[in-house]
Structures are given as C-alpha cells and as structure tokens.
Specification:
Two copies of one chain form a homodimer. The first copy, chain A, is of the alpha/beta class. In chain A, about 35% of the residues lie in helices and about 15% in strands. In chain A, strands 2-1-3-4-5-10 form a six-stranded mixed beta sheet, sandwiched between helices. The first copy, chain A, has a four-stranded parallel beta sheet with strand order 6-7-8-9.
Chain lengths: ~270, ~270
C-alpha cells in the first residue's frame, strides 16, 4: 500500500510530516511518499498553482500509488481543481483520495469525475492535541478501509463538506450531485452571522435540496459576534433546514479537530 | 418627495438618524420618515425577522412614500428578502429603493421583480468621516436623480454589489439577470484569500459570465493574511477575470466609505 502526500492548498509543517512518518514506520503496513511540493511556499500557498497542480497530476498518474492523501487544508485547492480533473489519466481512477476542509473542492470534483474519495483527517492533523489518533484513523481507512474509522451515524450514501467551502463550490464545475445523500457539514473560525449567511446560500440551492438529510458536525473557534447573534450553530442550521424543507438529521462527528472521522463519498461511475 | 427609512439588516444608530434629519431639514426639498423599526434590536438584527419584514412591507405598500432608503447594512436582509417580494402591492412599483452592502440581497430581488433600485450611500454613512457628502449624494439621487451623484464611469446598464453578498446570492431566488451589464464589486473586512475564493465562486457562475465587464471598487479594511497572500485585490480580480473570460473594466468609484457613489440598476419589466 503506497500513499502519496501532496499539498494542493497550504504548506505542510515539517514537524507534522515527521510525526506522520513515525506513525507509519511503527505500523509497518504501508509506505508513505511525501512529495517535496508539500514543503514549498509561495505566498499563501504550498508553491505556485503550477507547482501544486504538477505534483497532484504526477501522483494521480503514478501507477505505483494506491492513495493520494491531501497534506492539509488552508486555502487554494479550488485554484487547480478544474485543471487537475482534465483528461484524467487511467491510473487516477485506481486510487482513493482523502482529505477535508479546503480539500473539499478537490473531493467534490474528483467524486464528480467518478473517483473514490473520502472526507477524513490529514497529515497536518498530527500537530493537534490527540492528533496521533486522527492520523491513525485516516491510515486505517487508507490501508484497510477499517470501518471503525467511519463517522458512526452513516447509514447510507453520504458526503461531508466544510460549510464555507460548500457555499463557494455551488454553481461551479466542481458541484457534485447531492441527490439522496446525507450531507454532513462543519465549519471553523467564522462568525455566527457568516454561518447563517452560508446556510441561507447553501439551503437555497435546488441541488442541495435534493439531499436526504443534512447533519451538523462541529463548528469550532466561532469568532465573536457584535452584538451577540442570539442562538447557536445548531439553531441556525435547524432553522434553515426548516425554512428550505431539508430534513435535519442531527449532529455528526466531524470537525476541525482530532475527533474528525471518515466519510466516504458514494462511488460514482466513470 | 417622501422618503421612508427602514432597516432590513442591523440597527440604525440614533446619532446617524439625527445627522441625516438635520441634513434633510437644511435642504428643505424632501420629507424623511424614519421608521421606528430602525432602532429595534434583536440579537444581531434591527428587530426580529417579522418586525423587519413588517416595516419593509408597510413602507412598500404606502402610496404616500416615494422612495425606500435602507438605513444601513450589516447582515440580515437576505432572511426577509423572499418574503418581502411575495405578492407585491401595486404601490411598491412606484418607488425607488436605495442602499448597498448587505442591502444588496434586497436590491437584487427588488430589481428582479421589476422595481427601480440603486446602489448608493445609506443613513448610517452619516457617521463616517465626510459622511455628510455621502448622505447628500444619496439624497440628490433620491430627490432629483442628480446625475452628479452617479459613479462617473457608467456608460451603459450596470449593477453594483458587495462581492461577498454577491457570492451568497448566486443560485438563490434573488439572483438577477446579469446579461450585458457592467458589474461593479467592492468589499470590506475580508482576508485576501477570501476575496480570491469569492472571485473563484462568482466568476465560475455562467450567469455572471454574461456580464459586459466587471469593474472593481475599493476593497477596504483587508484583514491580515498569514502568510502574506502575495498580490492585491486588483491582481486577484484581474486574474479571475482572465481565467473566466470576463472582461475587466478597471477600477470603480464605489466602496464602504464616504466616497461611495450611486449605481442605478437597469429598470426591468414588471
């Protein structure tokens, strides 16, 4: 089992890479190839658009690679996602792609292209408190599709997205088909008024209204609202579900933290 | 000329109301009716959704009101916009609606419903440095469609939006027809990576790609990006225009400041 790590968004911290390599060495059930592009830095990004795209395309086309693991989120995968999906090499279809947060732009597009993708922890999570468990969970899924890594409320086709990322991919060529899926959302570092506004936007989408249910993960590091917003993320999400006729399926065990679990997207047709 | 002020988003400051009333008293060419709803407070909003909707519907249906002036932005007009547009009373069609920022949700929906709307300064702007000029500019447009209040680069049908508001209304029932218009955008209080992400989202929209040109107003109070984003708002906007095939029409004289000018939307059909 050969797992390639690339960084389509921001630069991977060297300490995180070291920690993940130590975990992999202990396990002994897989080989990790951290692409040098992960450590590039070009302004906000882990290298220029060209460098990030080139590394991603390289591992997608590599027949010796069984899985592509996105190094971390941040921002930037949307800038290369469409180009990454053009003229897919045959080898790209025989891999699993794993990540979350900003990598959701790629998960959406890769899923739409018929590839196997899953939401789940990333190498940079090694630096979180309890991060070893998150990394181990991701590897358990990557190496042996260990069901204990899954979000435990899954009982049918599902997708997971950062709410703000989801809002920003609607109407773009990356927008997947949400029909009949449980849509799990989470967010981090937003004001509640922004959560409310994103929920307005997302639940107004006729495509999103095709979901079976919407489930709410954790919304962490909420920025102070002045004045106080009144209400919390759960009341906001429940209200927009009620207003839009989307069934609310309760809370979900995903978020920007070490407890974040794996949510495999339904496998489409190529 | 009777101008009604309502607050579909956040609470109007009493000092702003006083300052605007003093300006109106000096002019003597119009009557200002500041609805008491403007001073309500319910969490983030100028009263509950019901209170804000009720005040807006009241002035829209009032035959003695010639113009509806949105008190200020903030957040919240999207929560009542669809309901405000339902079963429009006859009198709603004989008025001008003026505002900007968060009020863009309403401008979009009212325009789509065939009403006369314009982007321009609001009563709360009285509190800005140089705010008297902004308020006077708005009143000059409201009272006598004074052409000197206009954004001076307009040479055809145009619309103006806060970029983040625009991103959040795409795909909703409020989305207007952008075909052939100059689309002016501005923003305030965002990180450059968010400006980049919003530009990705907005320029990916097939509806937005129908514009004649996109012009960039001021992007103010940019939040620090860590690491430095590299580039500025102009290079970001020009790049996404180039990537999406949208003509970039240069800078525009709008923004969250006292220099903000009036941009009347094209008058549609009811």
């Amino acid at each position: 089992m050969r797992i390639a790590v690339v960084a389509p968004s921001c630069t991977l911290k060297r300490e995180a890479a070291d920690a993940v390599e130590a975990i992999v060495a202990t396990r002994g059930d897989c080989e990790l190839v951290i692409h040098p592009q992960c450590f590039l830095s070009d302004g906000h990004f882990a290298g220029s658009d060209e460098a990030r795209l080139s590394a991603l395309r390289e591992v997608m086309a590599d027949q010796s690679v069984d899985a592509v693991w996105f190094a971390r989120g941040g921002y930037g995968s949307n800038r290369i996602a469409e180009a990454a999906l053009a003229d897919l090499p045959q080898a790209a279809g025989a891999k699993l792609y794993l990540g979350y947060s900003d990598a959701g732009f790629l998960l959406a597009g890769l899923h739409k292209a018929g590839l196997e993708v899953a939401w789940g922890p990333m190498p940079q999570d090694a630096l979180r408190q309890g991060g070893e468990a998150a990394v181990t969970r991701a590897l358990d899924w990557l190496v042996r599709r260990d069901l204990s890594a899954l979000e435990q409320g899954l009982d049918g086709p599902a997708m997971a997205f950062n709410l703000t990322v989801l809002s920003n991919l609607l109407g773009t060529p990356l927008e997947p088909d949400f029909t009949g899926v449980d849509l799990l959302i989470e967010d981090v570092g937003e004001h509640l008024y922004r959560i409310d506004r994103s929920m307005f936007h997302v639940t107004a989408s006729p495509a999103v209204r095709m979901v079976r249910r919407l489930r709410l993960g954790r919304v962490s590091d909420i920025l102070p609202n002045d004045p106080d917003f009144c209400g919390d993320e759960a009341s906001i999400v429940e209200q927009w579900c009620a207003r839009s006729g989307i069934a609310f399926g309760g809370r979900a065990n995903i978020g920007h933290d070490a407890r974040n679990r794996v949510v495999p997207f339904p496998r489409g047709n190529r």
